[in-house]
Amino acid sequence: MTDQRRRPGGSQDELVFMALGGIGEIGMNCYLYGLGPADDRQWLMVDLGITFPEGENDPGVDVILPDLRFIEAERASLAGLVLTHAHEDHFGAVIELWPRLKAPIYATPFTAALLKAKLAEYGGGAKLPIHEVALNGRFKVGPFGVEFISVAHSIPESNALAISTAHGSVLHTGDWKLDPTPVIGAPTNTDRLAALGSEGVMAMICDSTNALREGRSPSELDVAQSLARIISGAKHRVAVTIFASNVARLRAVADATRRAGRQLVVAGRAMHRMIDVAISTGYLPQNFKYLDQDQFSYLQPHEVVTLCTGSQGEPRAAMARVAADEHPAIKLDRGDLVIFSSRTIPGNERAVGKIQNRLVDMGCELVTDNDALVHVTGHPRREELKEMYGWVKPRIAIPMHGEARHLAEHAKLARAAGVSEVLSVRNGDIVRLAPGAAEIIDEAPVGRLFRDGHLLVASEDGPVRERRSLAFAGIVVVALPQSARDGVVPDPEVMLDGVPARDAAGRLMLDIVRDAVEGTIASIPRKRQQDTEMVREAVRRAVRSAVDNAWGKRPIVKVLVTRASR
Ligand SMILES: [Zn+2]
Ligand SMILES: [Zn+2]
After folding, report:
1. Which of 33, 336, 442, 476 would bridge 332 by S-S if both were Cys, CB 3.0 to 4.6 A apart?
2. Coil, helix or strand for 516?
3. What is the 31 CA–ligand 2 centroid distance (Å)?
4. What pLDDT, on the 0 to 100 scale, is given for residue 565?
5. Spacing, Cα 90 to ligand 1 middle (Å)
6. What is the pLDDT of residues 495-549, one digit of tens each?
7. What is the pTM of this model?
8. What is the 312 CA–ligand 1 centroid distance (Å)?
9. What angle do CA 71, 91, 453 make, to 5 degrees?
10. β-pairing, 365-367 with 337-340?
């Protein structure tokens, strides 16, 4: 943000909103509310999540985090970080990025317990200032009044936030749906939402994930009943894969298992961690019974239901290893039933498809959400959104948590629901919510960080961009000895990686490169050959175009000019 871009009147007291991630994408949620004049604001951060790369465009990257440079620069004015719920796209970046912020963290008990469990596992002994707030509790974060409002979702303790300021109040919905029978936890606190609406809500920032889908989402209870029917009718082994964080689903599978007279076996570390946290926070009973994976081999096929991690095709998770017949304890066979009680996140289709094909090749029967009601979304469809607008009646609406088409449909729906100011914003847009009419007043730097090995690197100008070119067209390395007396010696050393060895006529690519190098050097007068930079660039271009002629693709070319000893 540059000072020239600040509007005149920048000293007035304002309430602003912006996303550092999560608008224009589904994932990497990170939102900021700012209070005060432009040059002296207090900030409240809501959520700090990760996203995953789609497809194989970013070689070697498995996790993407938001670039926080805007708020890092103002970290002294960051009053706190409030977490709406414990999904990775909302809290997955906390452990890695907190050291850049060092602000107090506020969360309800389940989210706090899961964060602590992850911290114990991956945090390297770090301690975070986590403040636990009761469900539907109220607290202060700097100048912001914050109230958690329980909403149904696909993990225990999802919360909307009512944020109150001197300028008015904002409802930040987080991820939610309406589900009168969520199996675990209370239904969405619609009474409180309606009460807020009557008190007057200035702005609502709301989930757009299912804005394209008509009607209402089915209940988690419908899924539980459907799973129970399928499991009770099975003759052989049953394996179920779910998102580990969906404790209601986990409970539904456990209940169906017990009622079918079978035993539950749990495979996968994430599932064990989730069960421990769910027991400690009261979402599963203290005496919740399940067997570890090494008990699997003692059970007859009709006695077992196995709960596996890996619904997204993660290669190291239990389901992938079972499908590859490489799991140390769990083996499936002809006639066994495998239920994918999950939705495949865009980008994971191929990985999931590969696992499902292997299971079918093994003779397993497959049930996915295309075949039966074995999964429901955790996000509101259109009728649910309309109800929310009916209760809250905000003056301003800003769709979030969606890609462009979800945001656009949501914006239309909000207008049709009678909202007078509907803003379409993207990550980085700074929106003034008050005073006056809402408008985009400025822009903050935003971007993505890649987790690369155990480093965080920039996405645009970092090493991953070069790896894309390497993956596409390989590399040619040319080493040229140079001596003060003879200039460049036209006897290059050449290495090719990821480049074909011969052209279509059978000529060695190494020879093609050497000829290009020698021809180029011969064309440069001896005196000018002392200009190392010029030589290097001329050789690089010549090699690139010679390989392009021979192959039809242009590799990365590196030319090293080395000083000969004499
Ligand atoms: Zn969520
Ligand atoms: Zn989410």
Report:
1. 336
2. helix
3. 12
4. 58
5. 7
6. 999 999 999 999 999 999 999 999 999 999 988 888 889 999 999 999 999 999 9
7. 0.91
8. 16
9. 85
10. parallel
